[in-house]
Amino acid sequence: MSPVRAKALEAIRRRLRDASSVVLTTHVNPDGDGIGSMVALASRLLRHGAEATIVTPSRPPPSLRFLLRGIPTLVEEDPAAADPLNGADTIAILDTAEPKRLGGLPGHAERTGGVLIDHHPPVGSPLVQPAIRDPSACATGEIVYDLLSLDDEGLTRAEAEALYAAISTDTGSFRFSNTSPRAHAIASELLETGVDTGALFRELYGVYSRGRLALMRLALERLEVDPRAPIAWIALDRRALSRTGARSEDMEGLVEFPRRLAGMEVGLLFRGLARDRTKVSLRSNGEVDVSGVAQLLGGGGHAKASGVLVELDLDEAVRMVLDALRPLVEVAVASKEDP
User: Fold this and answer.
1) What domain range is 332 assigned to?
2) Fewest C-beta in 10 Å: which of 42, 141, 269, 314?
């Protein structure tokens, strides 16, 4: 652990150690890193005698709910969420630093104060302090692992399982470029606690509903390739879920189809949410930094994995994103061709 990270985490540790009632939250459409990081930290807080409740701005996907067993969990829109939010003395924000991705929770965080732990590139000022935003970490789960290590006590199997899920999902099962030597080293230590990777894989990835398979088929039918640059994409309108019987969380991973097409530099997934609202996922295979395009359009993320929500219909969103990406991709291709 770097001295800078250690200093920031010590400040966070002190704030949490003094807290008696903590609400933990993450971004809308919570993923494995957000859920796993919250669960591991909530488990430790409960063990230390604090009240800990997870309140998410949107409902966690079914594939991740097994991690939440034994942890009080609510969705912001639930009336019951008002009690822990109003009674909390600390809000812990994990895996995002963007207020607009926290639903109605930023107001509670600003009023109550708290801590922030994130591994995305910093944009703007943190919503609360103390905070750590460290893009050198493979996942927020890595930073939470370091935080818990400061207690000088062993991880429970539940904490280790949550952190393993956080790191493995955010590194694409240790396949993505953010997979570092330290990611493997931490995973090795987590396995020493008895984490059953086979059972964890089955919970996270092992079962597809018929609706998800129908959605995958539809997505492949919609796969397109740009005639001018090595960019592939899938565009699904707002009726895709109702036509296939799939759920919103079944969209997870579909962007990998265009990304994995041979010869492509960038893969995209466009999802129409309403008549003038489209969600865009951007993935890079090499030199193209898709986070710059995402930030230009009001989103964010990592160099090779970013996202943005644009106030445009599906066709207009496709045109705008392709126009923004083509110059970057053409430069990347030209640099490869230069001797």
Assistant:
1) 210-337
2) 314
Q: What's the rounded Cα separation, in Å, for the pair 47 and 192?
A: 20
Q: How far apart, in whole angstroms, are the C-alpha atoms of residue 242 and residue 292?
A: 33
Radius of gyration of the chain (CA): 20
In the block, tokens 């089955």 appear at 202
**CATH number, residue 55:** 3.90.1640.10
Is residue 232 very low, low, confident or very high in pLDDT (cuts 50, 70, 90)? Answer: very high
Q: Is pLDDT at 310 greater than 90 in this prediction?
A: yes
Strand order, beta sheet including 231-236: 223-225, 231-236, 266-274, 277-284, 305-310, 300-301
Backbone phi, psi, residue 289, to 5°? -90, 95
Mean pLDDT of 54-68: 92
Query: Parallel, antiparallel, or unpaired for β 114-118 and 131-133?
Result: parallel
Please check whether residues 187 and 71 belong to one and the same domain: yes
Domain shared by 148 and 132, yes or no: yes
Task: CATH number of the domain at 249, please.
Answer: 3.10.310.30
Q: What is the pTM of this model?
A: 0.83
Please state the three-class secondary structure of the chain as a single string: CCHHHHHHHHHHHHHHHCCCEEEEECCCCCCHHHHHHHHHHHHHHHHCCCEEEEEECCCCCHHHHHHHCCCCEEECCCHHHHHHHHHCCEEEEECCCCHHHCCCCHHHHHHHCEEEEECCCCCCCCCCCCEEECCCCCCHHHHHHHHHHCCCCCCCHHHHHHHHHHHHHHCCCCCCCCCCHHHHHHHHHHHCCCCCHHHHHHHHCCCCCHHHHHHHHHHHHCEEECCCCCEEEEEECCCHHHHHCCCHHHHCCCCHHHHHCCCCCEEEEEEEEECCEEEEEEEECCCCCHHHHHHHCCCEECCCEEEEEECCCHHHHHHHHHHHHHHHHHHHHHHHHCC
Query: How far is 23 from 102, CA to CA, in rounded Å?
Result: 13
